[in-house]
Amino acid sequence: MDDQQHDQQTSAALGLSDDELADHPTVFAADALAGQVVVVSGGAGGIGRAIAWLFARLGAHVVVVGRNADKLDALVDRLGHRGVKASAHVADIKDADAVNAMFDALWTAHGRVDHLVNSAGGQFPQAAIDFSIKGWNAVINTNLNGTWYMMQAAAQRWRDRKHQGSIVNVVVVTTHGLYGIAHTIAARSGVIGLSRALAVEWAPLNIRINCIAPGAIETEGWNVYSEAARAAYPRSNPMMRPGTPWDIAEAAVYLAAPSGKFITGETLTVDGGGQHWGETWTTGKPDYFKGGD
Ligand SMILES: CCCCCCCCCCC/C=C/C(=O)SCCNC(=O)CCNC(=O)[C@H](O)C(C)(C)COP(=O)(O)OP(=O)(O)OC[C@H]1O[C@@H](n2cnc3c(N)ncnc32)[C@H](O)[C@@H]1OP(=O)(O)O
Ligand SMILES: NC(=O)C1=CN([C@@H]2O[C@H](COP(=O)(O)OP(=O)(O)OC[C@H]3O[C@@H](n4cnc5c(N)ncnc54)[C@H](OP(=O)(O)O)[C@@H]3O)[C@@H](O)[C@H]2O)C=CC1
Q1: Of the residues 170, 173, 271, which should be mutated to test ligand 2's pocket, given the most ligand atoms within 8 Å of the CB?
Q2: Which domains does the chain have, with CATH numbers?
Q3: Cβ(234) – ligand 1 distance below 6 Å
Q4: Pathway membership of this protein (predicted)?
Q5: DSSP summary character for residue 203
Q6: What pLDDT shows up at residue 58?
Q7: In what order do the strands lie in the sheet with 207-214?
C-alpha cells in the first residue's frame, strides 16, 4: 500500500488506529531523535497520538500528557508493546501549578527534556453571540493560558540548565473567519502572536517556537461537531479530502528536529490548500450565506 492509498483508507473509528500509526511509512530516519525526550500534551488525542507514535518511533522517549489516565496508560501500553519508549503524566494544562510540578518531575526522571509539543486543546461550535462566560473562559483557558503555562514551564527549566529546546504549538487556521468557533480563533491567534514574540525573546536561550495550523484532520475530536458539519469538512480544501494525523506528526518532527533548526516564530499551515479555497461551516451553513447558491 503506498502512502496516498494509506491516507485514503477509511477506518471504522475517526482517524488512525495505534496499529496504523505503528506501521505508517515515514520520510524520517529511524534514529533521528534517538536519546531525546519529548513532552506531548493531548498525547492520547487524535493528532497528539500520531505525534507521540512518530517521535517514539524515531528514538525519543515520549511523555504523553492529558487529563484521562486510562487513555494515556492504554496508549503507553501499546507503544511499549512495539518496543518504543513512552510514559504517561496526568495533568490539566489549565493548572499552572500542576504543569510546573510535571516539568520538575520529568527533569528528575529523565535528566533532560528536548521538545514540547502542545496538541492539547479544542473548542465547541456555537454562534459567538451566544457564548456563555464559562464557555468562553473554558476555551481561552485551555488553548491560550494552558499552552502558555506549558511553554513558560518548559522554557524556565531550559534557561536554568542552559539547555536548548524546541516548542511546537498545534493551533487552528486563523486567517479565515471560521464560523462558529470565534473563541478558539481568538485563543489560537493569541498563541500564534505569542509564539512570534517568544521566538525573538527566547532566541538567545536557544529555544525555538513554531506553530502548525491544521486544516480538517479526521480525528475523534470531530465528534463535537454535527454529522452535517463533519461530512462537509473533506470539501473544505481543493484536495477534497481530510488530512490525517500523520500529516501533522511529520510536520511536527520537521519543525522540532534539526531539519527545523533555522525556523522559529513560523506557522506552518497543513490544510491541503484550504486557506486558499473553500468554505468551512462548523455549525452548518446559515441561510444568509446561501444566497446565490
Ligand atoms: C480557513 C479554512 C481552512 C481550514 C479548514 C479547517 C476545517 C477545520 C474544522 C474544525 C476546526 C477545528 C477542529 C478541531 O479542533 S477538532 C478536535 C479538537 N477537540 C475538541 O474540540 C474536543 C472537544 N471539545 C472540548 O472538549 C471542549 O470544547 C473544551 C476543550 C473547551 C473542553 O474544556 P473543559 O473540559 O475545560 O470544558 P467543559 O467541557 O467542562 O465545558 C466548560 C463550559 O464550556 C461550555 N461548553 C462546553 N461544551 C459546549 C457545547 N457543546 N455547547 C455550548 N457550550 C459548551 C459550557 O459553558 C461548559 O460549562 P457547563 O458544562 O457547566 O455548561
Ligand atoms: N482535528 C482537526 O481537524 C483539527 C484539530 N486542531 C487542533 O489540534 C489539536 C489536537 O486536535 P485533535 O487531536 O483532533 O483533538 P482530540 O480532541 O482528539 O485531542 C485533544 C486532546 O487534548 C487533551 N486535552 C484537552 N484539554 C486538556 C487539558 N485542559 N489538559 C490536558 N489535556 C487536555 C485531551 O485529552 P484528555 O481528555 O485526556 O484531557 C485530548 O486527548 C487541538 O488543539 C485541536 O483544536 C486544529 C485544527 C483542526
Answers
A1: 170
A2: 32-273 (3.40.50.720)
A3: no
A4: Lipid metabolism
A5: G
A6: 98
A7: 86-90, 61-66, 37-41, 115-118, 165-170, 207-214, 267-270
